[in-house]
UniProtKB/TrEMBL annotation:
UniProt cross-references to Pfam families, sorted A to Z: 5_nucleotid
PANTHER family: 5'-NUCLEOTIDASE DOMAIN-CONTAINING, HAD-SUPERFAMILY HYDROLASE, SUBFAMILY IG, 5'-NUCLEOTIDASE
Coiled coil: none
Protein name: Cytosolic purine 5'-nucleotidase
Domain of life: Eukaryota
InterPro entries for this protein: HAD-like_sf, HAD-SF_hydro_IG_5-nucl, HAD_sf
Annotated organism of origin: Triticum urartu
Family to which the UniProt record says this protein belongs: Belongs to the 5'(3')-deoxyribonucleotidase family.
GO molecular-function terms, A-Z: 5'-nucleotidase activity; metal ion binding
Gene expressing this chain: LOC125543593
SUPFAM superfamilies, per database record: HAD-like
Keywords: Hydrolase, Magnesium, Metal-binding
């Protein structure tokens, strides 16, 4: 085994050879996944062990302590420490720059920014440093570490705002401003993206994204708690996108002083209430539904495989129900348009379903028993009834009535819906039904993930290089810290290094990490842009972690997919099992076995 001190000299002083493409591609590409029904999909990745914070060189403190202590030129510490609280950016906590800087005087002595000392592309240098650092760490004994719908809803909502007196003529719908899964802060006038724990990662005030430092100042001690309905409003469905776009645009108007005084003093919460009321009027007055019923082809994208997927299920003995909050006239029009032309042998959509319930009033449908009515004519005439029968068409009722009439209960039922709260969570929490969530945006994200694979691979590779180099740097930093207090380092090799070897080695390793950040930071900032330039991925918050939306899906949906017709790619007898849920220590256990 090579001498650790000699290896250290090689790491810091030798120039790396040019690496082959094979050597550069250490991270295997992810296996493509079928865009079908995914059983509790787990997005791979683990939390990084290092965080990056930009540094404020105007407020340094010496490694040895006392920020204000003065030193002679010969005694001045090589490094300065800057608190992460002073950072302007931390790139979603994923960059690996630490809080330690090489002091400018010593950096200049190495050749400006160190590039004259460390020649060549930083990726090649990093490969050499990472590979040799990995070896040295081993020697040291260190363990290996849908737009039309929202657009028209927006138009009707804005028309209602205008009738209230708001100035909205210069505004238009921007479908890229908002994605599902974001959360409106009705008190501060913000739109936020949170991770699975509720920590806020990105924020937009009005229509402007806020820098990371501002996010930290506003929400540093606050977590998203969806139970606080007076503050937070979760964007559960695509339909809520129009409401969020309206609110964010009107926040700009309020900030700019363009809300007429005659509307009274308004804060952000009052403004949200006005927007919500305007959009609610569009629904209650039936403006949008009337337009959709008149021209369904403008708003409904037919899926020829959907009726066939349900037909397979029915012919396999499954008992299908349609439960909708829409009234009979709207339901009949939409189902005729979307189903009848694709069904064989003159079948109609009603022939697929054992029972149809309209005007269900979800989510109350899952908790409260409402009066049950039978729809007895094509005009929608209702008559009271007390029992639901197979083949019936009903209005109202309750989930308990469905279970009783079909003599099935709990996990014998798979409920499919596209609203996390109204559909999935309520049926799961109150009835223990099995649940499937429909999330159409998955298809766009899946395509974007494939297109961004090369960039993601490059980013992960750079971070892995940085972690290895950083691990060695931290070991030397600890050795220097212990030496300052007259204590030995963790290993004999580090203890035997003199002060000059330690500091010069640390400087050069730190320069490698700082230059790697120049590559890592722009890749982190652009990660997810192919899905949405402002918010990044739907399913992720940062490079590795899950978004709050993904956590809600994981918590309440047994399976989720982009469309019901994906069931057609499986037999109706398929049993979907969840993937193995791994723990942090699982990987280490497997690696020891290997």
């Amino acid at each position: 085994m090579a001498d650790p001190v000699e290896l250290m000299r090689r790491i810091c002083l030798c120039f790396p050879p040019r690496l082959s493409p094979t050597q550069r591609s250490r991270v295997p590409p992810p296996q493509p996944q079928c865009l079908g029904v995914w059983a509790r999909l787990r997005f791979p990745g683990s939390a990084l062990s290092l965080r990056c914070h930009a540094l404020d060189a105007s407020k340094p403190s010496a490694v040895r302590g006392e920020p204000s202590e003065e030193y002679d030129d010969d005694e001045e510490p090589y490094f300065s420490v800057t608190s992460s609280r002073l950072s302007e950016v931390d790139y979603l906590g994923e960059s690996t720059k630490g809080d330690l800087n090489v002091r400018r005087r010593h950096l200049d002595a190495l050749g400006g920014n160190g590039k004259s000392t460390l020649h060549g592309p930083i990726e090649e240098i990093a490969w050499k440093e990472a590979r040799q650092a990995e070896t040295l760490l081993s020697d040291l004994g260190i363990a290996d570490p849908l737009t039309a719908w929202e657009g028209r809803a927006y138009d009707y909502g804005m028309a209602n705002l205008k009738s209230m007196g708001f100035l909205v003529d210069d505004l238009e719908f921007d479908p890229d401003l908002v994605i599902r899964g974001l959360i409106m802060d009705k008190v501060k006038g913000n739109l936020v993206k949170a991770d699975r724990f509720g920590y806020i990662k990105r924020v937009m005030h009005g229509t402007q994204m806020l820098p990371t430092r501002a996010v930290s100042e506003i929400y540093g001690r606050e977590l998203v708690d969806l139970r606080k309905e007076d503050t937070w409003e979760f964007l559960n469905t695509l339909f809520s996108v129009s409401e969020a776009v309206m609110f964010m645009q009107m926040v700009d108007k309020l900030d700019q002083g363009f809300v007429p005084a005659e509307l009274g003093p308004l804060d952000y919460k009052g403004l949200y209430n006005a927007v919500s009321k305007a959009l609610f009027r569009a629904h209650v007055e039936g403006q949008l539904k009337s337009e959709i019923m008149a021209e369904p082809e403008r708003f409904v994208e037919p899926d020829p495989e959907l009726p066939l997927a349900l037909l397979d299920q029915k012919e396999a003995g499954k008992r299908l129900l349609l439960i909708t909050n829409s009234d009979y006239h709207y339901t009949n029009k939409m189902m005729n348009h979307a189903f009848n032309r694709f069904l064989p042998n003159d079948m109609g959509w009603r022939d697929l379903f054992e029972m149809v319930i309209v005007s269900a009033r979800k989510p109350e449908f899952f908790q409260i028993s409402h009066p049950l009515y039978e729809v007895v004519t094509e005009d929608g005439l209702l008559r009271p009834c007390f029992k639901a029968n197979s083949g019936g068409l009903y209005s109202g009722g309750s989930a308990q009535m469905v279970e009783k009439s079909l003599d099935i209960h709990g996990d014998e039922i798979l409920y499919v819906g596209d609203h996390i709260f109204t559909d999935v969570s309520q049926s799961k929490v109150h009835l223990r039904w099995r649940t499937a969530l429909i999330c159409r945006e998955l298809e766009d994200e899946f395509d974007a993930l494939i297109k961004s694979h090369a960039q993601k691979e490059k980013l992960v590779t750079l971070i892995q290089q940085k972690e290895i180099v950083g691990d060695l740097f931290n070991q030397l930093r600890l050795a220097l810290q212990r030496r300052t207090n007259s204590r030995p380092a963790q290993t004999l090799a580090a203890t035997c290094m003199n002060d000059q070897e330690l500091t010069e080695s640390m400087q050069k390793l730190l320069i490698v990490m700082q230059r790697l950040d120049e590559k890592i930071v722009p890749l982190l900032e652009s990660d997810g842009e192919l899905f949405n330039k402002r918010w990044g991925w739907l399913s992720r918050a940062g490079l590795w972690d899950k978004s709050h939306l993904t956590r809600q899906i994981e918590k309440y949906a047994d399976i989720y997919t982009s469309r019901v017709s994906n069931f057609l790619h499986y037999t109706p007898f398929m049993y979907f099992r969840s993937q193995e849920q791994t723990l942090a220590h699982d990987v280490h256990s497997y690696s020891r076995d290997q």
